[in-house]
Specification:
alpha+beta, about 35% strand, about 60 residues, 1 helix, two-stranded antiparallel ribbon, single chain
């Protein structure tokens, strides 16, 4: 996200994905600015989450 004064801020977003009928629902639970104390987190692409959920497999951990 880029603020109006030009400062770029990364956010850590916690969300859940669930299947409802034939649709996938994405529910954002919280979002807060990322800071150095969080540590290195592996990125998981949305399509990996979607494919895994549709195949009824365990979701990958970040």
């Amino acid at each position: 996200m880029v603020y109006s004064n030009g400062i770029e801020v990364d956010y850590f977003v916690v969300f859940t994905v669930f299947r409802e009928s034939k649709k996938l629902r994405l529910h954002v639970e919280s979002a807060y600015p990322k800071y150095d104390g969080i540590g290195k987190i592996k990125k998981v692409r949305f399509f990996v989450i979607a494919k895994t959920l549709l195949n009824n497999k365990k979701l990958p951990s970040p």
